[in-house]
């Protein structure tokens, strides 16, 4: 492969193999590469929602302290290379092509085996990331986001210095199980012996994480117990709060990411930072903490992309995320008309997602996008009870209608699948 497009096409071709939980293919490829994952200092982050924000808060604070931080995240919003980054800068085209050419023969050899079969796109991206960080970029710390679940996720080949499980709610039930207990058990599968776990899980999910941590002799830091946030105040430009852990108290912290759930995500990162300081001697001054938190702004996370008309993009891709988004809308826009544009994958509980959105929406537009598992706008329509709604199957027509019919009293929220957000963001930019 000589061009970046050839690599993209190869990876795109692997998507047809879908999701295949299990670590055997990963272990086979990593053995062939002499285990690059063992050369890295890593932090593993799982959870139903909030993983990307938590990673970004932690990475930015560490970068302010002049640490080189690698991140492996998914899915991407703009460019597949964004998933693999050091200090916020995506892997270069040359390195991406070079690593892909090194990995592809292994993928093709793996396909011929009778025991393992074809690797998936996410497995290949994970191997590429580990190889890049270990043998090309050499960051001080790598923060790795679990793709799906945890126990059998391809990222679970690492032995991290710290583990974070942000929260647990119902999602990917076709793979992880249809109960909170089953889903929590899968996510708790990333907990390693003696490696501390930071979590915002509650209820039954927290009990399972606590039980797993106890069996693994891993110290468990729980949001609202060992560490917490308090004195939260929502402002026009973000959120202000205080943070308290078993080690330190930090006051008057500020994030520009909006919503109370973002305070929680920032708190997971702050707890991780305190742990790294007290057990690994990694010092980050308070000014760097505040600067790092204030800097974070993530594409597709309540991202304002237009002022007139006022448009926000938010990848609320499951019921729990939609609930958090609805709460943020209700708190921030109490007098404005709310126009919600929505599209989702067939694997999601769209009925409950639409029910929640209808509680805050004055007008609803249903649409679709190009992902093979995207529901059509007509399929979404069967779940609508709001009287003021419309069906526009084509994204370009949605945007045309939006700019023709919006006024200064309307706030437009475009939400649903992260793949939808990525696609419509590209259309808006062009």
Which secondary structure elements does this structure contain, and how are they paired or packed?
Layout: H1 4-14, H2 24-32, E1 42-46, H3 51-64, E2 69-72, E3 84-86, E4 89-90, H4 93-111, H5 121-137, E5 141-145, E6 162-165, H6 173-176, H7 180-187, E7 197-199, H8 203-215, E8 220-222, E9 228-235, E10 238-244, E11 249-255, H9 260-280, H10 286-295, E12 303-306, E13 310-314, H11 319-332, E14 337-343, H12 350-358, E15 363-366, H13 377-381, E16 389-391, H14 395-405, E17 410-416, H15 418-429
Parallel strand pairs: 1-5, 1-6, 2-5, 6-7, 7-8, 13-17, 14-15, 14-17, 15-16
Antiparallel strand pairs: 2-3, 3-4, 9-10, 10-11, 12-13
Helix pairs in contact: 2-4, 3-9, 3-10, 4-5, 7-8, 11-12
Q: What labels describe this entry?
A:
globular; Protein-Tyrosine Phosphatase, Chain A; 15 helices; 8-stranded mixed sheet; UDP-N-acetylmuramoyl-L-alanine:D-glutamate ligase; 430 residues; 6-stranded mixed sheet; alpha/beta
Molecular structure report:
- The model has no long low-confidence stretch (mean pLDDT 91).
- The two termini are 29 Å apart.
- This protein has helices at residues 4-14, 24-32, 51-64, 93-111, 121-137, 173-176, 180-187, 203-215, 260-280, 286-295, 319-332, 350-358, 377-381, 395-405, 418-429, and strands spanning 42-46, 69-72, 84-86, 89-90, 141-145, 162-165, 197-199, 220-222, 228-235, 238-244, 249-255, 303-306, 310-314, 337-343, 363-366, 389-391, 410-416.
- 41% of the residues lie in helices and 19% in strands.
- Strand 3 (84-86) and strand 4 (89-90) form a beta hairpin.
- The strands form three sheets. An eight-stranded mixed beta sheet has the order 4-3-2-5-1-6-7-8, sandwiched between helices. It has a six-stranded mixed beta sheet with strand order 12-13-17-14-15-16, sandwiched between helices.
- It is α/β, with parallel strands linked by helices.
- It is built from 15 helices and 17 strands.
- The protein has two domains: 4-295, UDP-N-acetylmuramoyl-L-alanine:D-glutamate ligase (3-Layer(aba) Sandwich), CATH 3.40.1190.10; 303-429, Mur ligase, C-terminal domain (Protein-Tyrosine Phosphatase, Chain A, Alpha-Beta Complex).
């Amino acid at each position: 492969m000589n061009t970046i497009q050839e690599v993209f096409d190869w990876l795109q071709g692997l998507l047809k193999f879908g999701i295949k939980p299990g670590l055997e293919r990963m272990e086979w490829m990593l053995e062939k590469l002499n285990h690059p994952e063992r050369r890295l200092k890593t932090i593993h982050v799982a959870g139903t929602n909030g993983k990307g924000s938590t990673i970004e808060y932690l990475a930015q604070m560490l970068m302010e302290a002049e640490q080189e931080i690698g991140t492996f995240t998914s899915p991407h919003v703009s460019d597949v290379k964004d998933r693999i980054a050091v200090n916020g800068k995506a892997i270069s085209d040359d390195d991406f092509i070079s690593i892909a050419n090194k990995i592809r023969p292994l993928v093709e050899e793996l396909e011929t085996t009778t025991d393992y079969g074809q690797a998936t796109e996410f497995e290949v991206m994970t191997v590429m990331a580990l190889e890049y960080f270990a043998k090309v970029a050499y960051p001080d710390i790598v923060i790795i986001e679990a793709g799906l679940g945890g126990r059998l996720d391809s990222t679970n080949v690492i032995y991290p210095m710290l583990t974070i499980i942000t929260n647990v709610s119902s999602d990917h039930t076709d793979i992880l199980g249809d109960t909170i207990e089953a889903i929590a058990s899968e996510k708790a599968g990333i907990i390693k012996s003696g490696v501390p776990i930071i979590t915002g899980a509650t209820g039954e999910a927290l009990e399972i994480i606590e039980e797993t941590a106890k069996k693994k002799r891993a110290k468990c830091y729980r949001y609202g117990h060992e560490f917490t946030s308090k004195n939260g105040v929502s402002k026009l430009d973000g959120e202000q709060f205080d943070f308290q852990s078993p080690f330190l108290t930090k006051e008057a912290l500020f994030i520009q990411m909006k919503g109370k759930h973002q305070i929680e995500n920032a708190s997971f990162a702050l707890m991780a930072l305190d742990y790294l300081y007290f057990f690994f001697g990694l010092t980050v001054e308070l000014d760097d903490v505040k600067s790092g938190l204030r800097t974070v702004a993530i594409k597709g996370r309540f991202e304002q992309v237009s002022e007139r008309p006022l448009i926000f993009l938010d990848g609320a891709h499951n019921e729990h995320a939609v609930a958090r988004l609805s709460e943020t809308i209700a708190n921030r826009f109490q007098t404005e008309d709310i126009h919600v544009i929505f599209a989702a994958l067939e694997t999601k509980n769209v009925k409950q997602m639409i029910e929640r959105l209808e509680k805050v929406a004055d007008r609803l537009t249903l649409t679709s996008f190009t992902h093979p598992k995207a529901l059509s706008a007509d399929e979404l329509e069967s779940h609508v009870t709001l009287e003021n709604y419309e069906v526009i199957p084509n994204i370009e027509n949605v945007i045309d209608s939006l700019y023709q019919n919006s006024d200064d009293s309307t706030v437009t929220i475009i939400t649903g699948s992260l793949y939808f957000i990525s696609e419509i963001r590209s259309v808006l930019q062009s």
